[in-house]
Amino acid sequence: MSFHRTKGLCGIKTLLLDLIYITDRELCMDQDEWAHRLGWTVTRTGFVSRHYREPRFDLLKAERTAAPALALAPVPGKRAGGDVAT
C-alpha cells in the first residue's frame, strides 16, 4: 500500500519540477536568446535568475594580470639607471 502512495507522490513531484522548469525557461527565454546572440555565457543560478558573462572580460583580466609582469621585465642593453646621458 505504501508503494502506491510513494509512487503517486513521486509523480506529483516530477510534474511540479517540470512545471517549474518550463515556467523558468519561458520567463527568461528572451534574455537568454539575446545573450547567446551576443556570444555571452548564461548560467542558470536559480528560479528566474541567471548569471550572464561576456567572455571579453576574461581577456581583460588576463591582460591586467600579465601587464605588471611585463613592466618589470628587464630590457636588454639598458642600464638600471635608464636613458640618462653621462
Overview of the molecule:
The chain has helices at residues 2-38, 56-71, and strands at residues 41-46, 49-53. Helix content is 62%, strand content 13%. The radius of gyration is 28 Å and the shape is elongated. The model has no long low-confidence stretch (mean pLDDT 79). The protein has 2 helices and 2 strands.
Topology (SSEs and partners):
Blueprint: H1 2-38, E1 41-46, E2 49-53, H2 56-71
Antiparallel strand pairs: 1-2
Q: How many strands in all?
A: 2
Strand content: 5-15%
**Helical element count?**
2
Tell me the strand order in the biggest sheet: 1-2
User: Which residues sit in consecutive blocks of at least 5 with pLDDT less than 50?
Assistant: none
Query: Outline, from the CA principal axes?
Result: elongated
| Sequence of secondary-structure elements | HEEH
Estimated radius of gyration: 28 Å
Mean pLDDT: 79
Helix content: 55-70%
**How would a crystallographer describe the biggest sheet?**
2 strands, antiparallel
SSE class: alpha+beta
Roughly how many Å apart are the termini? 99 Å
List descriptors.
alpha+beta, two-stranded antiparallel ribbon, single chain, 2 strands, 86 residues
Give a summary of the structure in a few sentences:
By secondary structure, the chain is of the alpha+beta class.
